[in-house]
Write a structure and sequence with these properties.
479 residues, alpha/beta, TIM Barrel, CBS-domain, 2 domains, 4-stranded mixed beta sheet, 19 helices, binds xanthosine-5'-monophosphate
Amino acid sequence: MNGKIKVALTFDDVLLVPKKTEVASRREITLSTNLTRNIKLNIPLVSANMDTVTESEMAIALAREGGIGIIHRFMSVEDQVLEVRKVKRSESFIVEDPYTLTKDKTVGFAREFMKQKSVGGLLIVDVNNKLEGILSRRDILFADDELLVSQVMTKNSHIISVQKKISFEEARKILHEHRIEKLPIVNKNNEVKGLITSKDLRKFEKHPLALKDDKGRLMVGAAVGVKTEDFERANELVKAGTDVLVLDIAHGHSKQAIKVIKELKKKFPKIDLIAGNVATAQGTKDLIVAGADAVKVGVGPGSICITRIVAGTGVPQLSAIINCSKEAKRLGVPIIADGGVKNSGDLTKALAAGASSVMCGNLFAGTDEAPGITQLRNGTKYKVTRGMASFGATLGRTARENGTIKDDDFSDVVPEGVEAMVPYKGKAQDVIKQLTGGLRSGISYCGARNIKEMQKNAEFIRITAAGVRESKPHDVELV
Ligand code: XMP
């Protein structure tokens, strides 16, 4: 300790100074940005890898709007892989490897299988994967569970199929002409090679900004830890089609993290790797030099974090973003501001300060797509959220890893997060609209047309407690 104390600020300490704008309409503003060295987002939003925030439903909602969700790692490898697969299958307009079943199965089995895989229909094949029929939700709606699939399916002689991959427009035309909802792709031996569905075509049209991989599937990220068994997890996730891995530990500026980054990059050179969390320029540099393709910045700013209280460490988030992004920019790598963003104003400030994208937990935790049920308390709807280092989450992890919880496990936990309720917010899409709408406005106030220009133009002004008070509704009764 050299006796000097640096000053650091966070979102509420500052405002962006308005600049002359050339923008006549918010529609002229684009929000595309880099998530990593090689992955571009259409909007700068990433949903947090927390077990009350991102599983497949949230990841699908984010990717449809142009952002990305990171599937959390607090579940078995098989479950995490399943969540990634659900995203990858959700709406490529051609499903490369559709779910199939043989016709000797019962309707009850098929019903359960469809529910488990979240699909509205199945291709029925023989043991050589040759198409024999289609089973749709309509076929089994009122059918007894004991019936056989062969008794209710639409038989091959009535099925329209194609023998090669066709364009979006061609598929649309065939589905319309024949008034059908499913169009299997088969080879000349009638073996199944893919499936086009009307539902996927409609989704494709409805989400022009959707973030897609080169096969037209939604993109998704998945988190891994630093333990030896996490390499197997990473391997399975990559095999399942994960587009980006996130090495996620609370104190990412560590020897262990650096070692794991190097090994992950060696094993999966084609997959971009996000690493974190750090809060300093040196931490950012060390992770980038080790091979990180993006760095996640934030120690203790999260809505459910108590690291700063428990460990007395952290850096107020705006200063952390400024310090880390300067170093990252020098090395040509983007940073992701993670935690503490409460509204679109904070989102704008985080990006203006140098972040290329922003990870949010709290803002999405109250939406329909977040895991967990909605609860009613005193007439208001809530969802539960929790820090991944909270008492419950830590104990859950111990139970999963050891198969049991011992008495000592309770007293061994030193939580660095809390469990809490967040107000119910409806659809993630609506929250995203509000966030991106506010961000567009913020970019325009900075006299810019996109995030890069805003970063160049941004001028922060420090405000006082009186300034904070003036910035909120005041001297009125809110209705
Ligand atoms: P927000 O503010 O968006 O922050 O809810 C989400 C981020 O918080 C981090 N996180 C934690 N930090 N203890 C912490 O100190 C925890 O238990 C914890 N759980 C999540 C994480 O970076 C997340 O993206």
